[in-house]
Amino acid sequence: MKRAIAAFALAIALALPLVAQSFDPRKKYEVTFGVYGDLERAYREVLSGPDFKSKYPNITFKFQTADMNGHHNRLATIIAAGEAANDIEAVEIRFISNLVESGGLTDLGAKPFNGRVVGKDLVKFAMSNATTTRGKLVAMPVDIAPAVLFYRKDLADAAKVNLDSLKSWDEYIEAGKKLTLDRDGDGKKDQFAITHPGDVGVIPLNGGNGGWFEDGKPLEPKQKFLDVLDLVLKIRRAGIDADLGAWTPAWTQALKDGKVATMPLGSWFGGALKTWIAPESKGKWRVAYLPGKLYAAVGGTYLAIPAKVSAARKAAAWEVIKYLATSPVAQLAVFRSIDAFPALTTVYSDKVMDEGVEYFGGQKVRKIYADVALHIPESPVSEYDNVVLSIWMRAVSTVVFGKKSPEVLYEEARKKILATVE
Amino acid sequence: MTARRPMFGTTVPRGAAMIALTAVALLFAFPFYYIFVLGTWPGERVLELPPHLVFGNGLSANLEVLLERVPYFSSFLNSLGIALTQTVLSLFFCTMAGFAFAKYRFRFRKQLLGFVIATLAVPGFLNIVPFYKMMVAFGWINTWLPLVVPGMAGAFGIFLMTQFLAHGLPDELLDAGAIDGLGEFGLLIRVVFPLARPGMAILGIITFIGSWNSFTSALVFLPDLSKTTLPVVLAALNSRVDNNLGALMLGTALSLLPMMAIFLVFSRQIISGLTAGAVKG
Amino acid sequence: MRVSRGKGRMPYLFIAPFFALFAVFGVFPIGYSVLMSLFNWKMSGPVEFIGLGNYVNVLTVDPFFLSAVLNTLVLLLTGSLLQHFIALPLAIVVNSRFVKGKEFFKTAYFLPYITSTVAVAIIFANLFDTNYGLFNWALGAFGIEPVAWLADPVGIKVALSAVLNWKYVGWNMVIYLAALQSIPAELYEAVEMDGAGTIRKHLAITLPHLMPVVFFAVSLSIIGGMQIFEEPFVLTGGYENMGGEGNSGLTAAFYLMFTAFKAGRLGKASAIAWIIFVVILLLNRVNRLATDRMPGGGD
């Protein structure tokens, strides 16, 4: 009898924390929040704003910021150690993969979170990008980066090409040839269509998210991947790329000087152009759909709760994530402050989406971003994505030299992936 | 000119050697200067081509970002405190252990020293994972302890001091000290520490710089922004859309100054003005 | 070595802090990583005990590891070891009597060592850029075609070696400078009386006396060189690029980090760490044998 009572008491004691751990509006919470880059500034603004303060006067914050690599290394270290990191951790899309199947992040699709219901208005592809192949929802999307073709209108006009509705990459290359010029007549080309052929090495693959496996086999269907290597090689052979490494000083300078006429990249790049790469080129850049109306994303921020965070803290963290991801006020505020495009589809009909953007000569670029976002194909993440992406990108950058055929590189990459992934 | 003349025996080759030495020295020092230059250019112009070689006009703007966006000053003090603490502790414990390994014959000396050196070869990258578990269990998160305590008698320092004391500290001086009635600990304090200066200078410089630059462990063990170190705070300025490269460069440039100071202070011990034991040229 | 001393406990007491700290802070992490290496251990493991499976996989099946070790060994020679042939003569010259402004030279050569990696990345991206870099501009002045430094397997090695030499020469020079102080001047006077020239003098006196320090400095270069990660990581563009063209900049430690933190395979990464450990021990054995055979070595 005694033992039965003891067992009962123990059961109660164990069950109690689960019951008592819903969010309590009368309690004070301090939520710790791990972010990278410019997110802290944007979130601080929103979370100290009147809207949040009126809804959650009892939540305060402590931020931990680092650069993107440092932030994710820290997170991986702590999760690997099986300990609790901050209550909320921001995760960039490329870094979700290695945290995915680990069990290190809370399944937000399960009770008591019901993240799929909460996130019903969040853009579909982003929800799928945060879902593992086994169906766990490991994070909630807050901002996304629909990929578009940024281009210099003045250069396109001068070359008499229209980049607004290119039907295919072949058309793009044809236009690119006209955009590639020797402006100063010194016998050397000094204006190019694109910075590097590798810029299109992933964008055409399942909404830019890879879709690396089919029935567990890597790089299948084969033709899809061969086509991309062919495209990359064609761009190099057409002589329309400036052969610039991304984010090098020369790369930035070329974009600033208008030596590169187009750039297929995520919407955040518009913010970088406007604020620091080429602020003086106001009015010269435009946005178009990717050739063939390809729908893809390059980048995006997700918020996750590490599994080891205590239930009480999870409850508060979840309220904050819900607010940042699904409150129109928060979504629009972050968009305004750091050009992080909303994941919440209900704000796509907000009047701000219909406003012309001065930097893009008054073009209604947000309409395009929103339309792209709604059409990006769904694609869940697997734990192998990062490895496969790295191996794939080596094939992409090697193919441009023309020494090995796309076919050979495809096979090499496939073998390496199989050997690494087993 | 005969074969017997020293290589630098005449003024002309000596002059040429000086010019070469100076030219290469300037080449080596250039990046250092360059960081200071970049720190004075506004963020959006840092990466301009051709590269900037002279100072720009963004100093005050960068300073503003640096002081407003991140707790630069407090993290500067944190870094300084951590680095100095670690340096002092390392100098003491490593010189002590190096003295024992270099000047005593005791059982298992060779094996123990071999063990110390072998621990250096363990790639430490992954140890941070289980080490983090320990620090949580110890309750040491958000304190200086994980950054200061485990390394205060580091294998590197012991190896270094053993090498220098074995060859740089004459036994006669120790014997003389012993005759004067100094105990083992007295010898350490009164004889070894003063005479081990060139070795300790190197250890001091290396420890300070290593600690000052530590990024990953500070990021992991000092999550609280007000308690963290300079490299962590600077990394927070690095973003894609909101370019703070100028402020980052300025912050980096200013953070080099304490390392410079430490180097100058300690390195004085390394070339102590061509004293008795110096090489003649 | 003071034979007369050491009957007591003092030497053990003096070295005790290291072993105490190692017992507390070293044993657990090292044991833990040995354990991880025996499991199919992902971001949160252990999943499955596989014995030496990770080791076998890394050494036989893995498409990157062996070439990563080879890359590391090449950089060890051209980056970490080559610089001793620069640093030692440099230290002797700076230390010689006729050189004025020793403080300036010592400091100037040491500055790269304290320059931050972020800055190094920006500077070297400027220097090695294919189209706009200073090096290709200089080559162009001699009519040489631009070299795609960072897009070419050999170019990557050259660039990385240059960075490593640049960064660590001053550090080795400072070690040698300190060691030069301990050579008694009388020794030089003796050979000078015999009329030896500068070079012969240094070969006869300086080098044999410095052999223990050479061993020490080379040991450190081997240990450090085999664990080189940051420079190739930054210069070849991070994890996504896996060391650039032909994985030329993918060092063993880089691949270890990639395996652990990008691929989330902690068990396999631990196995890599232990294989690197064994390689370092072997290389240091070689270093010991080599320096022992030199005049003045083998004390």
Structure description:
The complex is a heterotrimer of chains A (422), B (281) and C (299). With 422 residues, chain A is an alpha+beta fold. Chain A has two domains: 17-145 and 299-358, D-Maltodextrin-Binding Protein, domain 2 (3-Layer(aba) Sandwich), CATH 3.40.190.10; 147-295 and 380-421, Periplasmic binding protein-like II (D-Maltodextrin-Binding Protein, domain 2), CATH 3.40.190. In chain A, 44% of the residues lie in helices and 14% in strands. Chain A is built from 17 helices and ten strands. In chain A, a hairpin with a 2-residue loop joins strand 5 (213-214) and strand 6 (217-218). Chain A is globular, with a radius of gyration of 24 Å. Chain B folds into two domains: 12-64; 71-267, MetI-like (MetI-like fold, Orthogonal Bundle), CATH 1.10.3720.10. Chain B is globular, with a radius of gyration of 23 Å. Chain C has 299 residues and is mostly helical. Helices cover 71% and strands 0% of the residues of chain C. At the B-C interface, helix 1, helix 3, helix 4, helix 5 and helix 7 of B face helix 1, helix 3, helix 4, helix 5 and helix 7 of C.
